Amino acid sequence: MSASHPSPSDLSDIVFTDWVERWLPKSWRPYARLCRLDRPIGTWLTLLPAIAALVQAAGGLPDLQRVIVFSLGALLMRGIGCTVNDMCDRNFDKHVERTRFRPLTSGQLSMKNAVWFLLGQLLVCGSLLFFLNEMSRWLALAVLPFVFIYPLCKRVTYWPQVVLGICFNWGMLMAWSDTQNHVPLAAIAMWLGAVLWQVGYDSIYAYVDVRDDRSLGLHSTAMRFGDQGKLWIGGFYLGTVALWAWGGYAMGLSWAYQAGMVAVAAHLAWQLKVFDIQRPDRNFMLFRANLWLGALLVVAALAGVLIR
């Protein structure tokens, strides 16, 4: 690796000079890092598609209580997923540059305490069910198996990112079920588009770990795509734009939504142009840039229902 690129040690996903280190009591820090409070990008990538779906389902600004419940749900479910993932992967993470300092694999936290923490998160998250309708409660329970099997998928399939996409974007379906008590075909198309989007951007992220994953016998879409990553990811992104464009059309959203889809397509095209499988530092940046893509989706949804 040339001197202009970061050394492998720079690829750790934990920064020990952040707000967690400065502001939280020492005994709390491993728990905050276990549920990724120090890295909120995943929470935003879970929440923003759900907010867009809430807007579309409401045909305008969604109910404030519902926004709060879904925001808390995104935060807690992302934390639960990360906790389960790190519990299952604790013996692998120590051999991966990006994950070697995580609390369980580095010994900062015991498995017993992680189990209690997981149960606590599940209990708090379960309390949110009281604020949802019956259909949404069943949908919330239906996603739990996917959350728990995701960490195991990388051991048996090259497509764990598909399972992750199902989990991350499940809130889009629940947004419709809780707002309208049904999930129309157009909403399912939007959700499928988000799953394809997730497979695309998480594949970019997975290229950071390819060398370590290969040595550990793990699998990912990045390993499946190999040198053709740009072509594969481009295909998933094209599917995303097509499904989101059709979904908006089928919902009767205005021209302003489709204008937003042009911006979404341009952003995804920029990602593909910048993407380089030999530049893990650049791929980190591209993964985080999807926060803006999620924000674009929300803006497009708002424009589509408010501008006629």
Automatic annotation (TrEMBL):
Pathway stated in the Swiss-Prot or TrEMBL entry: Cofactor biosynthesis; ubiquinone biosynthesis
InterPro entries in the record: HB_polyprenyltransferase-like, Prenyltransferase, UbiA_prenyltransferase, UbiA_prenylTrfase_CS, UbiA_sf
Subcellular location, record wording: Cell inner membrane; Membrane
Taxonomy, superkingdom: Bacteria
Gene3D superfamilies referenced in this protein's UniProt entry, alphabetically: UbiA prenyltransferase
Record-listed E.C. numbers: 2.5.1.39
Any GO molecular function: 4-hydroxybenzoate polyprenyltransferase activity
Keywords: Cell inner membrane, Cell membrane, Magnesium, Membrane, Transferase, Transmembrane, Transmembrane helix, Ubiquinone biosynthesis
CDD domains membership: PT_UbiA_COQ2 (cd13959)
Chief location: membrane
Pfam families: UbiA
Cellular component GO terms, alphabetical: plasma membrane
Cofactor dependence: Mg(2+)
Chain segments annotated as transmembrane: 41-61, 109-132, 138-153, 188-208, 229-249, 287-307
GO biological process: ubiquinone biosynthetic process
Protein task: Catalyzes the prenylation of para-hydroxybenzoate (PHB) with an all-trans polyprenyl group. Mediates the second step in the final reaction sequence of ubiquinone-8 (UQ-8) biosynthesis, which is the condensation of the polyisoprenoid side chain with PHB, generating the first membrane-bound Q intermediate 3-octaprenyl-4-hydroxybenzoate.
PANTHER family: 4-HYDROXYBENZOATE POLYPRENYLTRANSFERASE, MITOCHONDRIAL, PRENYLTRANSFERASES
Similarity comment text for this entry: Belongs to the UbiA prenyltransferase family.
Name this polypeptide is given: 4-hydroxybenzoate octaprenyltransferase
Gene: ubiA
